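EI: anyone free to look at a 222-residue chain?
SC: sure, send it
EI:
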Amino acid sequence: PSQLAEAIDAHTDVVAFSAVQMSTGEVADLDAIVDAAAHHGATTLLDATQACGWLPIDATRFGAVVCSAYKWLMSPRGTAFMTVGDDWLERIVPHSAGWYAGEDVHASYFGPPLRLASTARRLDTSPAWFSWVGTQPALELINHIGVGNVYDHDVALANRFRAGLGMEPSNSAIVSVDLPGGAERLERAGIVAALRGGRLRASWHIYNTDADVDSALDALAD
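SC: here you go
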């Protein structure tokens, strides 16, 4: 991600990238990438799955933004979001359009012609109803707290963890460290972490506290 902006040139049409790299936690330089894409007339497609919920994102800066909700938005699997600019909306063909993509959903149940919605709902599919029952209160909670406050909380916990491991502070809620046997030590202490690319990955969110960080550090020190 750190070299992406420099790789954009006059031959680039679309810049598709992640706001946050899922295995390392590296946060992309969104300003540099957006500026480079605009300079060369390229559009942008941002995957914000590892960002939405803790990292403030202005979706209007990108051609399109996609986000699965089961990560930092704390939602059941089956819900996701996509925002598109007007230029994208005019060009995208909704190949899977069904009744929910119609201008009048209740008049779109039976037979042709299907009159697509004039808004981005033309790209929607039939909702995963039970998944959205869980997604709604999760989004309400995040909005109540405020994404900026979540960012401050999550990054502070991540940096507390990094400091305990002798690492420099970062701007990410995800900590990736080469610590052989670390995942096993955490598991024995009843703490869940992940192994990604052979490295221990610990992600800190609004349900975590300073005590959780200290417990993880104690387990890794054993």
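EI: The chain has a mean pLDDT of 95.
SC: 👍
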